[in-house]
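Teaching assistant here, posting this on the class forum so everyone can see the example we discussed in section. The complex has four components, and the goal was to see what a joint structure prediction looks like when all of them are supplied at once.
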Amino acid sequence: MVDQQPGVAVLGEQDPAAADTRILRAIRRIIRAVDLHSRKLMTGHQITTPQLVCLLAVSECEPARSSEVAKSVSLSTATVIGILDRLESKGLVRRERNTTDRRVVNLWLTPDGRRLVETAPSPLQDTLAGSIERLPTDEQFSIAAALERVVGLMEADQLDAAPLLESGPIAPSREAGTSAEPTKELSIA
Amino acid sequence: MVDQQPGVAVLGEQDPAAADTRILRAIRRIIRAVDLHSRKLMTGHQITTPQLVCLLAVSECEPARSSEVAKSVSLSTATVIGILDRLESKGLVRRERNTTDRRVVNLWLTPDGRRLVETAPSPLQDTLAGSIERLPTDEQFSIAAALERVVGLMEADQLDAAPLLESGPIAPSREAGTSAEPTKELSIA
DNA sequence: GTCAAAAGATTCGAGCACTAATCATTTGAG
DNA sequence: CTCAAATGATTAGTGCTCGAATCTTTTGAC
């Protein structure tokens, strides 16, 4: 049903080997695969990957704070709040205002939450983890190193490139509003 | 800042170097970095990465269909519809019912859309692409190969594991040793 | 003591992504 | 021809993700 041949179309680069294109494309497919995996987890176990990751984070520093959880799972606090809302409404975590500093909220596992953590369906990827474990060790490490290399590049990107990108040189011109409705909010330039 | 202990926090595995943990963690950070980059693109150029990718796909097979675009960018049609809505409201693409088969909708670039494609900020990652290009060629290829390896594992996962996952019992995968622990029932919710 | 700044949690608005359901149209079996 | 199935686009509903407000409480400078 879905695309079996995702390789051909999108990027017109005819460059035969184009490592960067391959890299970018692989990243997009990894993202998709992670998402699909999470949905499968959801239908099978009523919990998504992000929820499971946050649940585990709560269990590790048990009187946990939202901000701690966010930091430890590399997500924004806004995102984590939403996830915690859902975990709470499922009865897996409990929120409780800290009495000494009433700004902070303490997070606890409920008995159900604890039970789930104990029998948890493997940290993240389930069968992917198994597949990886079955690879030769040196390949495991080269994969890890390659991914971390990409992470490094991307996160450096975030820092260095920010000012450059801000005042982007990309503007597709668009003077003289020849087309129908020029004054959309797309006044690039 | 963030947890600089990639191994310790989220995943309980005590395996000394834990390549799989590193891999999984790196994947999550890559996903985040891609998202953050897209947001930066948005503030700088009024277009997000998914929108740009779809715009490029439209431009490649110009009387394009939604389903073609979806297939070529590896997203579901539902997702692409939403993206096309936004591209249309920005005046970058135009929709038009096909006259011979009125189920079909033809997609065209507007002049603005065409202009944006021509001056487009590199297919996906902008400065990331630059960073990658500056790496030694052999490293570029080893990164690409590693990512594709992961893609292969994950997409195989999707196919093989689906029936297994569907009906509940999960492979715990803890107990890294040999104990394949018979399926745990976790009846949450 | 007072009040501004900081810190922590949350809400708001927007975009992306999916599956499942729906609607319109075309095709094809009888 | 007729109507069910197939096809294509879309909507409905849920969840993840973010940055930018907002609200509450604490801290600290004066």
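For the discussion questions: Chain A touches chain B through 105 residues (CB under 8 Å). The longest strand of chain A covers residues 93-97. Think about how each of these relates to the inputs above.
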